[in-house]
């Protein structure tokens, strides 16, 4: 395929010791020869095997030295994109790396679209579509485990399973097609039985992959966990204790938190999206009231609610309201401020209500946070019965395609069961085969590709 030469900053923008500007395409060498010099200012030729040069980056028009650093030459096909690639590892200043990028553009490269490097790797046949998407999930992975799952996909586990299923489908279809050409009754029966038998086993495998999609989603997006309670019970203190950092403002003034604050924590390898909210109470303050509305909304959106209660004082009417507001959702009662002792009236009151777990902690002293995490893990374990070795689908597009494939397969089996014509069965099998191909990008139209790759970040 014919491509132009593209470039982008491949690292995150910000102060760092190095930043990488990536250049890929057939004229990567010529482009970079215009802007790279040796340390002593001599010109450089990018040819032959991979190499690393310590040199200068200059502007192609003015020849002004912009920076110096390591320049990596990686000729295709042994590079990320399978094309000729030059990576300029320069100092990490925000302006500096922009200047380097501008020099590369001035030397003749085009600014890459988001995900275009990975798209090329795909179009050049180095990785399949599920691997390409997994690269994106890897970039976004929020915990080690989620990262590992994405990495497995990069390595092609998911693709291997789909390919194996497609192979069986092709064999099955061939069997059916052959029978169409030699139509004898008993042979037709055998073919139909085969469709039912192989179909049933394939259906199971597809179902397993579909079921994994929910786990995949959790690994990618985290379990939405709302921290709610009346003002001043220690919600923000709990967020900070779980994050092990002073993320949220904590004061002894009720109504401190007004906006919704989201942060990710890793609980036993499962990402939680913790949402700290405004304390729920009746208030005249307009800003606080908006916060309270958002707080109520977050209860509705949550998959798990941590109801924070101040156990050191008798309960208030606002606590009663909290208990009522959360009774329909999965909740854990977090009894805070145990460092001050538990109030007997509070204890009696709480015993009237039920939750998935009740944990006593001190957010301020960071006591029993591990116990709370253990309980959270236990409560959500059911959602993510994680088999550490299975194949996970982390992607809604793949899930939808698998569902279509599933329907087609069931159509083929129903047709076989009802003794329909073999042509009808063959068509349904063919659709199943094609849908599965779409999952890993083996029969994918250009539009869909653009759509998928445009969701990548720049420089990948
Ligand atoms: N003794 C004690 N004090 C705590 C504990 N947790 C929080 N506090 C104190 O309670 C006060 C309120 O804490 P916050 O974390 O701001 O409470 P909040 O629920 O976020 O309050 P709003 O944002 O106003 O709704 C602060 O003075 C905290 O230091 C605890 O475990 N023990
Ligand atoms: Mg707060």
TrEMBL record:
Task: Give every TrmE-type G domain span.
Answer: 222-381
NCBIfam families per UniProt: mnmE_trmE_thdF, PRK05291.1-3, small_GTP
Stored InterPro entries: G_TrmE, GTP-bd, GTP-bd_TrmE_N, GTPase_MnmE, MnmE_dom2, MnmE_helical, P-loop_NTPase, Small_GTP-bd
What does the record give as EC number?
3.6.-.-
Q: What is the designated name of this protein?
A: tRNA modification GTPase MnmE
CC cofactor note = Binds 1 potassium ion per subunit.
Q: Which residues bind (6S)-5-formyl-5,6,7,8-tetrahydrofolate?
A: 22, 87, 126, 460
What does the record give as the function of this protein?
Answer: Exhibits a very high intrinsic GTPase hydrolysis rate. Involved in the addition of a carboxymethylaminomethyl (cmnm) group at the wobble position (U34) of certain tRNAs, forming tRNA-cmnm(5)s(2)U34.
Q: Which organism is it from?
A: Alicyclobacillus dauci
Assigned protein family: Belongs to the TRAFAC class TrmE-Era-EngA-EngB-Septin-like GTPase superfamily. TrmE GTPase family.
Q: Which cofactors does this protein require?
A: K(+)
Q: Which gene encodes it?
A: mnmE
Q: Where in the cell is it found?
A: Cytoplasm
Q: Which UniProt keywords apply?
A: Cytoplasm, GTP-binding, Hydrolase, Magnesium, Metal-binding, Nucleotide-binding, Potassium, tRNA processing
Where primarily located? cytoplasm
**Sites where the protein binds Mg(2+):** 236, 257
The organism's taxonomic lineage, starting at the top: Bacteria, Bacillati, Bacillota, Bacilli, Bacillales
Subunit composition and interactions: Homodimer. Heterotetramer of two MnmE and two MnmG subunits.
Protein residues bound to GTP = 232-237, 251-257, 276-279
Keyword Hydrolase included in the entry's annotation: yes
Quote the record's binding site residues for K(+). Answer: 232, 251, 253, 256
Q: Any idea which GO molecular function terms this record carries?
A: hydrolase activity
Q: Into which EC class is this enzyme placed?
A: hydrolase
């Amino acid at each position: 395929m014919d491509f132009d030469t593209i470039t982008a900053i491949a690292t995150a923008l910000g102060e760092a010791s190095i930043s990488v500007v990536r250049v890929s395409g057939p004229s990567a060498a010529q482009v970079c020869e215009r802007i790279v010099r040796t340390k002593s200012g001599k010109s450089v030729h990018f040819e032959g095997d991979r190499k690393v040069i310590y040199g200068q980056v200059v502007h192609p028009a003015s020849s002004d030295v912009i920076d110096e650093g390591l320049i990596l030459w990686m000729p295709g096909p042994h590079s990320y994109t399978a094309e000729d690639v030059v990576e300029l590892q320069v100092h990490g200043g925000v302006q500096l790396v922009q200047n380097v990028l501008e020099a590369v553009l001035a030397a003749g490269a085009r600014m890459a679209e988001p995900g275009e490097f990975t798209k090329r790797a795909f179009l050049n046949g180095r990785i399949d579509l599920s691997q390409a998407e997994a690269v994106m999930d890897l970039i976004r992975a929020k915990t080690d485990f989620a990262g590992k799952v994405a990495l497995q996909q990069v390595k092609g586990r998911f693709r291997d399973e789909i390919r194996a299923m497609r192979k069986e489908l092709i064999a099955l279809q061939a069997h059916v097609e052959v029978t169409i050409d030699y139509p004898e009754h008993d042979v037709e029966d055998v073919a139909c039985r085969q469709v039912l038998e192989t179909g049933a086993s394939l259906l199971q495998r597809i179902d397993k992959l579909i079921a994994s999609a929910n786990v995949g989603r959790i690994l990618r997006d985290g379990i939405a966990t709302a921290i709610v309670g009346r003002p001043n019970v220690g919600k923000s203190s709990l967020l900070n204790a779980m994050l092990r950092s002073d993320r949220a403002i904590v004061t002894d003034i009720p109504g401190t938190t007004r906006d919704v604050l989201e942060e990710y924590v890793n609980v036993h390898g499962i990402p939680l999206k913790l949402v700290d909210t405004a304390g729920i109470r009746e208030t005249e303050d307009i800003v606080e009231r908006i916060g309270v509305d958002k707080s109520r909304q977050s209860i509705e959106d949550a998959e798990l609610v941590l109801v924070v209660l101040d156990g050191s004082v008798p309960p208030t009417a606002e606590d009663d309201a909290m208990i009522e507001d959360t009774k329909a959702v999965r909740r854990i009662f977090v009894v805070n401020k145990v460092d001050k002792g538990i109030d007997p009236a509070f204890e009696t009151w709480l015993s009237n209500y039920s939750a998935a777990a009740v944990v006593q902690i001190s957010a301020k002293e960071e006591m029993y946070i591990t116990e709370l995490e253990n309980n959270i893990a236990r409560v959500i374990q059911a959602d993510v019965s994680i088999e550490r070795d299975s194949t996970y689908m982390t992607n809604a597009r793949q899930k939808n395609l698998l569902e279509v494939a599933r329907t087609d397969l069931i159509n083929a089996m129903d047709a076989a069961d009802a003794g329909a014509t073999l042509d009808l069965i063959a068509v349904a099998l063919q659709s199943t085969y094609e849908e599965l191909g779409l999952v890993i990008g083996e029969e994918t139209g250009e539009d869909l590709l653009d759509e998928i790759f445009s969701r990548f970040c720049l420089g990948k």
